[in-house]
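User: Okay, second chain of the day. Same drill as before: sequence in, structure tokens out.
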Amino acid sequence: MASEPAVRARLQRAGQEHLLRFCAELAPGQRAALLAELGALEPEALREHCRRAAAACAHPPGPPPDLAARLRPLPPECVGSASRCDPETRLLWEEEGFRQIALNKVAVLLLAGGQGTRLGVTYPKGMYQVGLPSQKSLYQLQAERIQRVEQLAGERHGTRCTIPWYIMTSEFTLGPTATFFQEHDFFHRDPNNVIMFEQRMLPAVSFDGRAILEQKDKVAMAPDGNGGLYCALSDHQILEDMERRGVEFVHVYCVDNILVRLADPVFIGFCVLRGADCGAKVVEKAYPEEPVGVVCQVDGVPQVVEYSEVSPETAQLRGPDGHLLYSLGNICNHFFTRGFLQMVSSEFEPLLKPHVAVKKVPYVDEEGNPVKPIKPNGIKMEKFVFDVFPFAKSFVAFEVSREEEFSPLKNAASDARDNPAVTRRALLMQHYRWALQAGAHFLDACGARLPELPRSLFRASEGKDVRFPSSHLPDGTEPPAICEISPLVSYAGEGLEMYLQGREFRSPFILDENQARALQA
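Assistant: Same drill. Structure tokens below.
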């Protein structure tokens, strides 16, 4: 362990000696912990981090004045669609994806370093239950989807296959996540195929460029954003592990999307057959001002432009078909080749520019009293996973249905958007659509069949002529019948006819593995 004089000298070089101002008051254990934390910070990197944070925060927010002239939609040849392609092409993509999965060439990588602060909980988001009849957490839903897609690929190709599950955590989420997985027997997955690793942490910085003390013996630290992935891959030799396993393609996704299709064979197959080294799933923006980043080109290279950087005039622009010109909404759902990740981690990561997040950061005042600020007082610097798009040699975007694939859990119940009730309804409405498509009928409490929904609440199902209820029900409205389908029974609505066709069910109805076996008997 570094001595106090050595740490003090390093902090002087960084211009951050104030972090030791309470050192003499600390008990030996506290002092040792603080010195260990500070000793791990490189002086030059700390000085530059604090300088860049203060300088970036001083820049006025809003779009760069010349951005509109540099902005272009992605060329049509770089964009695919799950719903606007012909069925034969979709099947071709899907079969290629299943083939790569069966060859053990596909891994999934979960970004799970953030805390559930906005959600109003003190534990990782993946542990959250949104109130499904089964009481499954986000982690369990994801684990079961991996198991089901492995099963589907294995059945098609007559083999047993494995999709390794890499989980990037942070100092805040690693311990609770590891314990949660152990308590749930890794959701019946082989622990050797669940690889957790930790992203770096960076000090929060005051507006005048000083690292913030959260407690007398602890610096206020925050994860370095989901773009910290690329350093973490190197720090923990994750790419070397992928190479040993024969992994060539990696599906990266964010923890909070309850509808995420892990290792989606259609998306994987589309990217592989297009020869892409980098790809992004997108959804069509619901309205011009929707607060979601836009996948487009800037100066001729692919990029995600944050909604706050797009002027209202640009956001409103429409193409000849009447659709928004900049309509491809980023949903943090990406495809990378292992080769591309290796190139980014070894060559391009230092070129990624941090983004500024102004936050309320708890701190101790000059007398050592803890303070919880009522307004933002600090800067957290983050990198984003999509910041690497400009380095791709062959970038593609793949548009999917929002109703089928995107409903993020971000906010507490008090917020009107992206809260637990909204995400729960999105999943249950999806399962209700799947059940109707498979020929199921639902009964009310008196045993009468439930009537159809108004036609205005229906949408065309992907790749089919039949029409099914949309998830765009009036706010607060539950599906006509509560139907939950286990991912272990169906990954994306496939294979349900053998259990449901022509049968009647009362709400709530859970189709799990046991119920499926009973219905098949």
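Residues 428-520 form a domain with the Seminal Fluid Protein  PDC-109 (Domain B) fold (CATH 2.10.10.100).

User: Thanks, on to the next one.
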